[in-house]
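Cont'd.
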Amino acid sequence: MIDYADVNVKLSGRLQTVSALPVIAFANIDEAPPQDTPYITEKFQPATSTVRTFGNSSHKVMATGLYAVTIYGVQGVDVTPNNTLATAIVTAFAGWATALTNGDRLRIRTDVLPTPGDSRNTGDGWFVTPINIFWEVESRLTVA
Amino acid sequence: MTDRFDEELADFSLLLDVRGAALFVNVCSAAKFSITDGSPLTGAPGQPVDTGALKASWQLEFESPTRALISTDKEYAEGIEDGIGPHGPITIRSPVGGTHSVALTVAGIDRIVEDETLKLVGASNA
C-alpha cells in the first residue's frame, strides 16, 4: 500500500531544505500574498499505480506522480532570483531518494528529470516559473 | 533458395515498416487523447471543461512519417497546464479534467508505447 500522505510530506520536507526559500502558500490556506513579496506553491499529484509481477516473486506496486512547484517572483525586476531558486530546487531533487516511514523507497525519476518550465509574467505583478518533479515509489502489494 | 529467402526478408521488412507506421500513428493518437480526455496509463486528468473550447482546440498533425505535433492555439492553455492564472494559483472547478496533463503524458509516454505495441501485436496475432 502506497502511503501517499507520507510521500507528500517527504517531498515537502525536501523542498524546505532549499536555502533562501520564500514562504510557501499552501493550497489549504486562503491567502492573498502581498505584492512585491515572492512566494511559492506546491502541488502533489499522484498519477499511476501499477502492479508489477512479471519476473518478481513478491508482488509489488509501482506508483508514479508529479510534484509541481511554482515560484512567484516579482514582475518587472531581474529574472535572476527566479532562475537561481529554480536551479536550487531542481538540484535539491535531482537524483534524490529517501525511505518512507513504512520502509518503501521514494525516488525522483531519472528517466524524466526535474525540469523548470517557461517563465512568464502573469500580468498581475508576478513573474512565475513552474517546476515539474516526477517521483516514483515501489511498494509491496498488500491485499486486505 | 536464396531468392526465396530474399523475398521473405523483403516481406518481413515491409511488414515492420507498416507496423512501425501504425504504431506511430496510434501512439500519437493515444497521447493526444491522454492530454484531452485523460488516461489511466499516464495519470493525466485531461482538460477541464467549461465551454469545451480548450478541449476541442487540441489538434494532432502529422508533419512527416516520423514527426507529429500536438498543439492548441488557446493562450490560456499554458496556464491551465501549470495551474497558474493571472492573479496567482488557479483552482479547477470543472468536474472533469485538471492540470499538468501534458507533463504527465510526456512522463508516461513509455507506457502508451507499450500499450499500443501490445494492441498491435495482439491484433496481428489474432
